[in-house]
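User: Sequence in, structure out. Go.
Assistant: Echoing your sequence, followed by the structure tokens.
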Amino acid sequence: MNSFNLISKSIFAIVFAITLSFTSFTSAFADEDNMIATVEALPNSTKFVLTFDNEKQEKLKVKIYDADFKLVFSEALGKNAQIQRIYDMTAIGEGTYTVLIKGETYNEKRTVTVKGALKNNFIATFSPEATNKKVFASVENNKGTVKLTLTDLEGNILYEETISEENQERTLNLEKLEKGTYFLQIIGQDKSSYETYYID
């Protein structure tokens, strides 16, 4: 079995087929605005949805290409008037894909970019302002390691700590700092959060 067949079988498609009647419409690489075919990435997922109004009820073929325009999946569809499919690209990975839908008269092309869920979607909380020159920061749902840093307006690091616990709280005393603007940050692999404080 060649590698293309292996890849093709690893792409899971869920089919919803609804037979409806529509007035005819022809397209040759139709404009996105015509909305004959639409593709939409599912949030935080390597899946995307293809919806196609097969108004002429033609036999269709769908081909999916990666960013290098290498064919990664191909399938034939029936004559249903409206077709909706969910394609899971997890086995191939994140990226931009080109989808071609061809029939006797249809020739549609769409592109879609899929990106998986955040690997460490932690929750960061900060005190809204310095109280008695003290600030508070906490991290919840930490699934890896994050850094807690305090920097001044010039980017100088005044405090830095690596946190690996799932839930952690810290209170920092800023009373020895000079008057000015400071940034308290929690930095992870996929995202970062910060709060700005002014010490007078």
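User: And one key feature?
Assistant: The chain has two domains: 3-114, 123-199.
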